[in-house]
Amino acid sequence: MTLPIKPIKPKRISDQVFDQIRELIFKGKLKPGEKLMPERELAEAMSVSRTTIRDAIQRLAAMGMIVQKQGQGTFVKTYDGGTDDNPFAKAMRVQDASIEDLLEVRMGLECNAAALAAQRADSADLAAMEQSIEEMKHEIASGRLGTEADVSFHMAVAYGAKNPLQVIIMHNFHDYLSHGIRESLAFLYEDMANIEQIFHQHGRIVNAIKGRDPHKAYMEMKEHITFVLDCYKARSGE
User: Fold this and answer.
1) C-alpha separations of 95 from 83, 90, 91, 92, 153 in Å
2) H-run or E-run covering 75
3) 120 within 8 A of 160, measured Cβ to Cβ
4) C-alpha span between 155 and 160 (Å, rounded)
């Protein structure tokens, strides 16, 4: 029997640097507008050459994930909702789509991610989910809305699905959702009753994923996003 086996190619160091910085951005550890360490410090921290760091930075810039400002440094790109840099922004305008449409799409993406995460997530993914819940509590306690930690939670679930396309789509989705239309959903975080609900919903999603129950994880995520959708409909008077 002939198996379709291919030689294993070693991963370039610059690819590993690229992957690590991209993951920090996707998981919300490096936040929009945040300045990256200088090349020299990154090179020392990662034990690689500055040329390797520069190559990874250039690729991230070409992807539109970071911005290099002359004389200031390198920053995680901030999406302001007013350009076509994010594919969801253009789609929303061209299709005259509503936030409700966007939330319905989110339902499909994230329920599927939760189900896959229940099958594939490792201990690091689970730790990231639980950490984001704690971060959200701290953000709320300090007077912030908690939206960034909320996004980090959903990105952690996406990472747990172990599907790179899922991660990229979810990043673009939440980038638009959390920055482009933040004001439209900010009311969710201003009502303590809503916040308590979100805490409990996130906790149940994590428990289902930890319990390796794809169906339960799917349904818990569905309940969570349905809650957000219902709140939005009630707010908009539908």
Assistant:
1) 15, 8, 6, 6, 29
2) strand 73-76
3) yes
4) 9
Q: Which residues of the chain are in CATH 1.20.120.530 domains? A: 87-236
Task: Domain 13-76: give its CATH architecture.
Answer: Orthogonal Bundle (1.10)
At 158 the pLDDT is: 93
> DSSP letter at 146?
-
Contacts of 56 (CB under 8 A, 6+ apart): 14, 15, 17, 18, 21
Pick out the chain residues at pLDDT < 50.
1, 81-82, 180
DSSP 190-237: HSHHHHHHHHHHHHHHHHHHHTT-HHHHHHHHHHHHHHHHHHHHHHHT
CATH code 1.10.10.10 region(s) in the chain: 13-76
As its CATH architecture, domain 87-236 has Up-down Bundle (1.20)
What is the model's pLDDT at position 180?
A: 47
**Residue 55, phi then psi, degrees to nearest 5:** -65, -45
